[in-house]
Amino acid sequence: MEVRSESEAHVRSEKVLPLQGQMIQRTRLKVLFVRVCSSILIWTCLVQLIAVWELYNPRLFSGFTGYTTKLSVHVEETLPTPLPLLPARNYTNNGFLQVSCNGGLNQMRAAICDMVTIARLLNLTLVVPELDKTSFWADPSNFDDIFDVRHFIDSLRDEVRIIKRLPKRFSRRYGYQLLEMPPVSWSNEKYYLQQILPLFSKHQVIHFNRTDTRLANNGIPLELQKLRCRVNFQALKFTPDIEALGEKLVRMLQERGPFVALHLRYEMDMLAFSGCTHGCTTEEAEELKRLRYAFPWWREKEIVSEEKRSQGLCPLTPKEAALILQALGFEKDIQIYIASGDIYGGERRLAALRAAFPKIVKKDMLLEPGELQHFQNHSSQMAALDFIVSTASNVFVPTYDGNMAKVVEGHRRYLGFKKTIRLDRKRLVELLDLHEKGTLTWDGFRAAVRQSHEGRMGQLARRRVIADKPKEEDYFYANPQECLCESKTCDDLFGPDNSTTIQ
Hints:
Number of strands: 11
Largest sheet: 5 strands, parallel
Helix content: 40-55%
Distance between the termini: 123 Å
Low-confidence stretches: 1-19, 49-79, 496-503
Mean pLDDT: 85
Strand order of the largest sheet: 3-2-1-5-4
Number of helices: 20
């Protein structure tokens, strides 16, 4: 029995010794791992402290060479110096404003400017706006897919507090029922102060579910008008990816010479919405009509196309655009950049325009397929590229007076009254029809077109105000005159005879 016990003890000791060795080895590895991590952490902190100290005491480490010097040079080369943050505005917060923008890119852009201004007026915290994902284009892009959200928040922190998302306590998941409503269109600051602000005392959060044209063009205090401009021209900056690709397009075009950005709004959604079928086949007209009926929010269903065209409410066809550009004096070899989506009818519809101006280019003709792949099926991001090119072009010519045309025109005015030809479509339709019938010669047609557009080239002009008809007056974002001169009023520039009001 004793021999057996000794044998069993010997076996057990042979099993225990390897286990103890393994435990010792693991302990040593843990100690080594902790030492390595600690060393890395200490060195990282030291390098960061040296870098920070260098900002304020650059001479102290001027004798250091080697790794530290190389690191500081690398940082300077790759990271731009961040602009100092503006001091945050201190105010009593009256509530949270949540907004859902509707429409295309430029309609939403103007709405964002208005919503920031309203939040500033009412001392509200603005939640980063939600973009429209349910419109005809069905673009899934979020705000930060198109705009630099950090720049947007930081650049306005002295005016408005902006947060990325609503605090959890106000979410529906926690049972909070926020008030949803569309503000009244074309309202001034009195409406928001007297009717909207009191609602925040009862509802801490209000959700504006429609934001287009919710602030008046005129009659707004000067400081608020200037804030609308600041948001539009400074705070709303596209993402680095969009900016880089847009600037590449501009460089490629400029290397080939001067170019015209033609916003050819002869696209399927516009034709269906407006009911404009001039130049279309019977089959195409029926297709557009079916599309109009398929979308319930397009309220006007039965439309007489020729009546709308005679009123100047239809976009020009590519063929009509070619004739107008020729009449305005553009040479055959000028570059024409098509700033729009797919033209209805494709290359067949573009044939007359291409015959008149062979140097027609589009995004997909200038860029490699892989460069545009990220932007495919994102209409707002593609529109952002067109926006960058259009603002940089030598001449901008929109064939329809939509949101893109208006907002780009305003940007070009802000950039030094760059040439924008605002086509008088009602007059042009009359001239086009006379010329097509042979009752107006080419020379007469050309002279009439030029004469009717002498004052429509984006020059300095006072914004037209029409009492009680805000839809018919000039759009603020097309001509933000309050932001185009240094004085409190632009009377010295415009002159006393330039009336602002049409009775």
